[in-house]
Every structure is written in C-alpha cells, then in structure tokens.
Amino acid sequence: VILGGAEAQQSQYASALLQQPGVRLVSRFVDPTPYLADCALTINPQQQIRGSALKIAESLLARRVCVSTANGARGFTALQNPALRVVQDWDAMALAINSLLQDLEGRHELETAAASARAALSWDGRAAELLQVYQGLLPDKFTGAGLR
C-alpha cells in the first residue's frame, strides 16, 4: 500500500510499477494511523524534500522502521535513531527493505528504538529544546525553567 496523496495522480508520477497486481496506490489524503498499524515498515523514497518530515515523524511515532533517502531524511539524521535507515539511492533502499523484511526479530528491536524518538518529536520535547535555545540566547532573562 502506497499513501501517495493527491499528487500521486499526476502524470509525472505514473509508473507501471504502481499498476502491478498487489500494489495499491492511495491517491487521496487519508489518516495514516491504520495504515501504519498494519505495515511492516515504511519507506520515504523522496528525491525532493516536500512532505518528507511528516512521513518520517509519523512512522517513528507509530514505532515503525523507516527507510529513507538522504534527501527525504533531511533534518532527522540528528536523531541518530536506528529505526531510521538512511540510504543514498534506490538500489540501497531495496537492499535495506529486503534485509529488514527478512529479519523479523531485528526489525522488532528497531521498532522499540523508534519509540525513543517520541520525546524528541513530541511537542514537549521540541518545546524543551526551544527553551534551551532561548536560555542560551537570553541567559539573564531565565532562572531555572522559567522567565524572570
């Protein structure tokens, strides 16, 4: 199942690979939650960066392993989370996907690691990070965890 969104209907994304038996392309906006609950892993084969951040965050927050191109993973490599597998090209992506699908136990261990991304990706985690930036920029305005 490929959640492609409305853009997936555009002719530049048409591919015979998406017309094969067993491939289902969802070309409308949908809540990804039930799809993430049912999947073995997610892929983010982006060559551009549009929409990638949300796809990776949703995948990791759902405790799924995500295989992404380097372009698609921009901004997420700092997480250094083993559940995010960053590859340089589609050939490497295919190898990573095959390896993960064949190693159920290893993939489940990585799903546990994905859960550790929750703090970094949640609002509380991001707000704490932003507060640290403010404290560094305006140290005389902050005492402890709050403003003076």
Write structural notes for this entry.
The chain has helices at residues 33-38, 52-61, 90-102, 104-115, 117-121, 123-137, and strands spanning 2-3, 25-26, 42-44, 66-69, 84-87, 142-143, 146-147. The strands form three sheets. Strands 3-4-5 form a three-stranded parallel beta sheet, sandwiched between helices. The chain contains six helices and seven strands; from the N terminus they run ββαβαββααααββ. The radius of gyration is 18 Å and the shape is globular. The chain is an alpha/beta fold and 148 residues long. Helix content is 41%, strand content 13%.
Please outline the helices and strands:
Layout: E1 2-3, E2 25-26, H1 33-38, E3 42-44, H2 52-61, E4 66-69, E5 84-87, H3 90-102, H4 104-115, H5 117-121, H6 123-137, E6 142-143, E7 146-147
Parallel strand pairs: 1-2, 3-4, 4-5
Antiparallel strand pairs: 6-7
What would a concise description of this structure say?
The protein has 148 residues and is α/β, with parallel strands linked by helices. It has 6 helices and 7 strands, in the order E-E-H-E-H-E-E-H-H-H-H-E-E. The radius of gyration is 18 Å and the shape is globular.
